[in-house]
Structure formats: C-alpha cells, structure tokens
Amino acid sequence: MPLEPAHRRFLPAGSALRCAGGFLLLCLLAALGAAEGAEREAAERLSPYFGTKCRYETLHPHLLREPLALGPPQSGFPLPPASCTPLQLNAVIRHGTRFPTGGQIKKLAHLHRLLGQRNGSCAASEALAGWSLWYREDMDGQLAERGRHDMSTLARRLAARFPGLLAPRRRFAFVSSHKARCLNSSDAFRDGLRQALGGQQPPELGNDPTMLGDIKINDTLMRFFDLCEKFVRDVDNNDEAMHEVDAFKVGPEMKKVVERIANNLCLPVDQLNADLVQVAFFTCSFELAIKNISSPWCSIFSEEDALVLEYLNDLKQYWKRAYGYEINSRASCILFQDIFRNLDQAVLESKNSKPISSPVILQFGHAETLQPLLALMGYFKDKEPLKANNYHRHMNRKFRSGRIVPYASNLVFVLYHCDQVQSPKEEYKVQLLLNEKLLEFPWSKKTVISYANLKNRYKDVLQKCHFAEVCNIPQNTTNTVVL
C-alpha cells in the first residue's frame, strides 16, 4: 500500500507569490505536491526510530507493496527437504498494530490544548492545533484494523514457508494473553490460516480446514511479568529502578530535543518536557502504523531528534524488560521451559514413530513477553550497559527495540527431523527465526544447531531456573528492594 498524503496540506510560505498569470494553478499544484513529498519523506525518515511503536514493514519494506511476499531467499533456510522434515513450529508472536494507550491519549490531548491556547502566529503550532484529535480514551491499546492485517498476512506467509506443517488436517494450538489486542490478534491469525488453506480442505472439515481448536488464555506464559512478585516489586512498581531513564529525560541530549521542539512549536520551553515530546513523536508513529499516512506531527522532528527519542525508548526497554536487571529475563524461564517441553514431546513422539500431537503452537503476547525471552537467550546484548550518560557510545548498539520487537514481531522455533544415520545425535535440528529472518545463535555465526546441543547450551535455564524460586517473595521477609 503506498503511503497516503496526510489529510491536511499547507502551502510552503511564499510559493504562491512566485506564481504568475495562467500558471498559478499549476504552480499551486506543484507546491502542494512538494509539501506532500516532504511529509512522506519525514515519516519514512523517522520510521526506523520508533522503537516498540515501529510498524513491521519498517523491517520488511517489500511488504508495503506485496503483503504476502516472502522476500529474498535466505541461505540455509529451510533445511533441505531431501534430508530434513520439519516436525514442529513453536512461535511466540507479539500482537499487531494497536491504538495508543489511554495515558498516551491524555498526554496528547494536553499537548494539543497547549497548541490551541497559545497566542501569536506560528505555522507549525497552527497546523497541529488544526489537526483533528481523533483518538478516544476508550481505544486504550486496542488492536487496530491494521493490526488484524498484520496477523492475517503473517499467517499466510508462515503457511507458505511451512506448507507441510501449516496444512489441512493439522491441529493447531493457540495460546493468548487475556488482553483483547492479543485475543483479537490470534483470531485474525486464524482467519489468515483459513484463507491460506481454504482451497485445500477435505469436504468433511467444512469451514474449518485447519482443525483449529479454541484459543486458550494463559497469562502464566504470556504475561509472566505480572505474576512474578519480585519483578513487580523490584522493577515494575519501583520508581528507583528507572533511574537511568529518568536521568536521560533531563540530561543534555534530551534537553536539547525539548528546546528544539519548543522552538518549532513557538511554546515556552517550561511548558514541555520529555514525556510530552515523546508522545508527540509516538503520534507520528501511530499515524504511520495505523493509517499509513505521514502525520503533520512528523514534521516537527529531525532525524537527530529521533535518534535521541529512540534511545529514550530503548533505555526503558533495557532496564525494565531486558538486561538492566536479572529478574527481567529470569522471570521468562517459565515460558522458555514450556517451549522446550513441547519440543521434547515432539522428539519423543518422532522417536517412537508416533504422530506429532502438537505440530504447530502459536502463542500471542506482548513486546514484554518477547523481549525478556530474547534476553534470557543472550540476544542483542551490548558489551556496555545502556545508561543515561553513554548515549554517544551506543550509536551502533545491538539493542534497538524497533528492530527486535516491532508490532507483530515473532520468534519461531522450528524443529526438524533429519536423516543422519552416521551421527544419531544430529538427527534432530533446530532453527530460529526472528521476524521471519534466520537468527544466528548468540555463541556462533551458525543458524542451525542440533537439538541436543541447543538443550546443553541452555541447561542452566532448563534445569535450574524455577519460576517460584525466582519470583516468589517469602511471607516473612521485609519489603526491602534489591536491584
């Protein structure tokens, strides 16, 4: 889908004065076209820096043109069908594109009122004051229609990649967080599967060719962070845990951004802060992701601003969901162990020449589900922690949340049975896909590993990480917070 123009356009200052005679209309049209082009360029220029608010297509631009295209072939994927057969696909999927939260909408409404109340002439403020605030607080993080599209097309692409697994007569296990955006995402994914397989179903299966079971709500797996008492106490509900984020908000890099945006909007700098500037930036991202338009909010930000705001978002993800505190990732071991229990079951059934009882397992959660899991596995870890005072040293960091957990992000474990007569330990192999791209294992440049070797690499987590021991707070302890 091509990027549409925003619903309001503004003629560049002085352009009409340069037009004369019968060429006035053509000149006006050319000026409007130039303005539209500039807005499009602004949104696309900023799009890589939206962090967890990134649309999936930022990673895969070809999907804007062809939503079902699989992209260029990847060397070594899938494993050669002559010797390897996929046995199980186990996926953890973030919900699709959503609306802003109620809190974000309130902040945006406050900023919008500030722009409407200011005195004097200011083109940028007047343009944004005239922008229609169409978000309602009851939207509060709900799945957008674009989010259903994300899920439906992802399902159809996965069916095309793994036709032997996502096929008629196969049973699919669906697991979801209780949140509506996740339940609706799983429902949209099911619709995509029906479309992908609808022409292949045996007559006796009627309208349900995939033999889809019910969607099971399991917050223990998909929202483990809510159930981990130590995480909730020490990180989620502890203001001190975000001290690096708070320090960056008032640090020199963010202070310059706030000053620049205040100047762009002709507002006193004391009326703005990092949170209001961030919500304006996110509004640019929401308009692009939800409506596929370039919002007028995009025009007030430079790429330099975007880099700073991306780091602010990444700091929060790092300290609250990833490597900042060990409890963040260790709490996800309950999900990690469940994935391996299912892989173990498939290996056992294969060895006993039995049908695989759960060939496809699809679990729908949040960025907060995926990010800790990837940290537990050792992915995207920089040598130096992300802090408020080392922004410039992290310009080329690995940890960029927009490239890891955008909307519709997905981590897929693929288990294969391979013909390895001379090396029985290599009979079962695993590949990982992150956002439909092969993922190298953290300790090597390889993209395939024997299942036995993979389990050995993570034996500490699989054998010694017990959710209750990691997360429970003994009844007789004080409320001392340890970070």
UniProtKB/TrEMBL annotation:
It is an enzyme of class 3 (hydrolase). Residues 1-37 form the signal peptide. InterPro entries: His_Pase_clade-2, His_PPase_superfam, Histidine_acid_Pase_euk. CDD domains: HP_HAP_like. GO terms for cellular component: plasma membrane. Gene3D superfamilies: Phosphoglycerate mutase-like. GO terms for molecular function: acid phosphatase activity; bisphosphoglycerate 3-phosphatase activity; inositol phosphate phosphatase activity. Its EC number is 3.1.3.62, 3.1.3.80. The keyword Nuclease does not apply. It catalyses: 1D-myo-inositol 1,2,5,6-tetrakisphosphate + H2O = 1D-myo-inositol 1,2,6-trisphosphate + phosphate; 1D-myo-inositol 2,3-bisphosphate + H2O = 1D-myo-inositol 2-phosphate + phosphate; 1D-myo-inositol 1,2,3,5,6-pentakisphosphate + H2O = 1D-myo-inositol 1,2,3,6-tetrakisphosphate + phosphate; 1D-myo-inositol 1,2,4,5,6-pentakisphosphate + H2O = 1D-myo-inositol 1,2,5,6-tetrakisphosphate + phosphate. Disulfide bonds join 84-418, 284-298. It comes from the Eukaryota. Keywords: Cell membrane, Disulfide bond, Glycoprotein, Hydrolase, Membrane, Signal. Belongs to the histidine acid phosphatase family. MINPP1 subfamily. This is Multiple inositol polyphosphate phosphatase 1. It comes from Eublepharis macularius.
